[in-house]
Amino acid sequence: IVACSKCKDCDAFLCAAHVQVHRISKSKRQHTLMELLPEGQVSAAPKCQIHTASELVKFCKTCGFLLCEVCVSKSSLHESHDVVDIGEAADSFKSQFTSRLAALA
User: Fold this and answer.
1) C-beta separation of 55 from 87 below 8 A
2) pLDDT in single tens digits along all 105 residues of the chain
């Protein structure tokens, strides 16, 4: 049996059968699954759980959710929200983390 995905929440490598269990389990369906590349490395960009072919490239600062382009363009849920590029959100979180860490020192 070969692992085809990794669950970021459980920190576990999963075969295809266990990926399906994760997707239907009430307690695990919101977990972030990352597809493994042929070399066994994890894909850099996780996929949207709704639009499974789309990568998560945006961050909704209002909700705190990662979004794909399809979620942003075709859904009215985030229409009036503050949605930014995932890199910008990562930089902001890094800056906040660094500031808080410095305050503890």
Assistant:
1) no
2) 788 888 888 889 998 889 988 888 889 888 888 887 766 555 567 888 888 889 899 999 998 889 999 988 887 888 888 999 988 998 998 999 999 989 987
Choose among 93, 18, 13, 100: nearest CA to 61: 93
Measured CA to CA, the distance from residue 96 to residue 61 in angstroms comes to 14
Nearest Cα neighbor of 19 from 9, 33, 30 is 33
Q: Nearest to residue 78, comparing CAs of 86, 69, 87?
A: 69
DSSP 3-state of 29: coil
The pTM score is: 0.55
CA atoms within 13 A on the CB side of 57: 11
The helix/strand count (H/E) of the chain reads as 3, 6
